[in-house]
Amino acid sequence: MRRVPRWALISSGCAPVLLIGGWTVAGFLEGPGYDPVTQTISVLAAYGAPGAWVMTGALLGLGVCHLLTAWGLRAAAPAGRVALAAGGAASLVVALVPAPSSGGSLRHGTFVALGFAFLSLWPLLATERAGPAPWGLRPVPAVGVTVLMALGAGWFLVDMGRDGAAGVAERLVTCVQSVWPLVVVVSCLLYAKGGHRPPKGSVPAP
Question: Global pTM?
Fold first, then answer.
């Protein structure tokens, strides 16, 4: 298994910090008129929003973090690394093509949907099925986290159509998507650290 560089801890660890910190600060700048339960993150980055510069910067930073993590995550299957990088690229485009101050935007919504799809699928595409692998690259955890993200995305779509808790659903999904690369990187580093230990009961070669 190819080793994952330690700097990947920085790129993967900064992703959730930037995302959560971005919507927290931008929401504070938006004031009491913004409802994080029912309103989406895109509202914070919309044209003319008081905290748009904060949320836009956070989304740009998030995209760069995913791109760097995909580059450094050498233990993952290539298809998974490509999907994670595509999710990072989608985040960059979402930041550069913000939603309007009122109404929807087909371009913005399209890239949001693409980002959701890539970041939901990359755990499955990155798994190692041929033999032993770090915990984060095993099929069972990957399926579990993908199902969780799919359920969150379904909740988001349903509540968007009925003015429900769409903001909560979106934050849940994006939190999981931003934290999972860190989980995978940590599991790869721990696996590599313990990988030089011989199995119990093995006899060293002469």
Answer: 0.89
